[in-house]
Amino acid sequence: MIPLSVPNISGNEWKYVKECLDTNWVSSVGKYVDLFEQKITEYTGAKYAVATSNGTAALHVSLLLSDVNENHLVIVPNITFIASVNSIRYTGASPIFIDVCPKTWQMDLDLLEDYLMNKTRQVDGLCLCRETNKPIKAIMPVHVLGNMGDIEKLCEVAKKYNITVIEDSTEALGSRFNKKHAGTFGKFGCFSFNGNKILTTGGGGMIVTDDKALATKAKHITTQAKSDSFEYIHDMVGYNYRLVNVLAAIGVAQMEMLPSFIDKKHEVAEFYKDKLTKFGIQFPETIKEMFQNNWLITINVGEHKVKLIEHLTKLNIQVRPLWKPMNQLSMFKQCNYVNNDNISQALYESCISLPCSTNIKKTDLQDIIVAFEQYYNKRL
Ligand SMILES: *Cc1c(COP(=O)(O)O)cnc(C)c1O
After folding, report:
1. Which of 138, 331, 345, 367 gives a 20 to 30 Å CA spacing to 92?
2. Best substitution site from 61, 74, 81 to test ligand 1's pocket, by max atoms within 8 Å of Cβ?
3. 217 and 188 together in one domain
4. Residue 56 beta carbon below 6 angstroms from any ligand 1 atom
5. Residues 245 and 266 in one domain
């Protein structure tokens, strides 16, 4: 089988992990945790980084530190992986889903502005939803598939309406907008190192911020809010959300290879573009300010989605549909979904993700193209 996207463990992972095991530094404190955080700040240009047990935890903590609670609303795109919205629900807050732009597949900023202008009002520095009178406390842009919309504009809009920006940049490590890294535009940026992300620690995450006080709080809240180095004194209800040293060691080794991973993703994306556009297949548009990491290469095949999935699966080529739009999931059906043309649904009905591991073989890529040719030529 040609898998969708698998880890590429080919650097110093064994060496660094062995060192953790040999020295007994296996748990939530150790030099690799510090080093991994340092590598992420150096790479992204964020001032501070706090490693977490996964990306969902990073999002949850960022929301908590933005004082989001059950009285609040949080804006999020309708196309994302479930974890973004789950993290919002963990705080008790409710999501407002905004439809996506048909070109970039990212949150539609015109819809966002229109909504804020016409459906909210400012009271005492809070942005209240007119219908429910609940404050919209945060907005969580998700850099879907490693691409980004106009994040600078989004931040300007959020500022105008007094809404905190928490970037779900879990899919976008290495992506940049005007040379500035994904995750460094909002008050917080969150990364994930799950098995299928561009870089993996097995499971892991990271919060980045430029605010020292918030970084300190993030570290505190992710280590059970222990406030004394000797006694078990805790000053709030905290979480056990820290990344362990063994996994951070894998992360440090993976960081050494990240530039080559991004080069490879780019190469694979270009290959697919070159070979597949002739069939009328579309790729998400990347706006000119963007450099994207091509994390998970996903195409729009229009009405061919179901049949193509069937065809490719039969040939042992692993493909996946796009995530089911959030507004359609049973838990979120009650939530507000802001849209004109339900682009989310159209994309869901016509997009598939293609194999794009950083260690994919040239012959596998060629086999995939042959499979596409078979499919489309048969139908001509
Ligand atoms: C992967 C992902 C997450 C969560 O990361 P985990 O490390 O799996 O918890 C959150 N949001 C999006 C959009 C993701 O793709």
Report:
1. 345
2. 81
3. yes
4. yes
5. no
Token pair listed for 68: 């989001």
Q: Is 37 in the pocket of ligand 1 (CB under 6 A)?
A: no
CATH number where 94 lies = 3.40.640.10
What is the rounded distance in angstroms from the CA atom of residue 93 to the CA atom of residue 239? 18
Tell me how far apart the alpha carbons of residues 30 and 38 are, in angstroms, rounded to a whole number: 13
Could you tell me if 246 and 346 lie in one domain?
no
Centre of ligand 1 from the C-alpha of residue 280, in Å = 31
Q: How many CA atoms lie within 13 A of 242 on its CB side?
A: 24
87 C-beta closer than 6 A to ligand 1: no
- In tens, the pLDDT along 117-157 reads 999 999 999 999 999 999 999 999 999 999 999 999 999 99
Q: Compute φ and ψ for 292, nearest 5 degrees.
A: -115, 155
Q: What is the pTM of this model?
A: 0.98
For residue 318, count other CB atoms closer than 10 A to its CB.
15
Residue 375 phi, psi dihedral angles, 5° rounding: -60, -55
* DSSP of 357-378: -TT--HHHHHHHHHHHHHHHHH
Does the beta carbon of 80 sit less than 6 angstroms from any atom of ligand 1?
yes
- The pick from 168, 198, 254 for probing ligand 1's pocket by mutation, whose C-beta has the most ligand atoms within 8 angstroms, reads 168
Domain enclosing residue 181, as ranges: 13-255
Q: Which tens digits make up the pLDDT trace of 282-308?
A: 999 999 999 999 999 999 999 999 999
For a mutational test of ligand 1's pocket, the pick from 170, 293, 320, i.e. the residue with the most ligand atoms closer than 8 A to its C-beta, is 170
Using the 3D structure, point to which of 255, 284, 300 is the last residue of a domain: 255
Mean pLDDT of all residues in the chain?
97
Determine the distance separating the centroid of ligand 1 and the alpha carbon of 363, expressed in angstroms: 30
Give the domain-ending residue among 230, 255, 280. 255
What domain count does the chain have? 2
Task: Give the closest residue (by CA) to ligand 1 atom 6.
Answer: 55
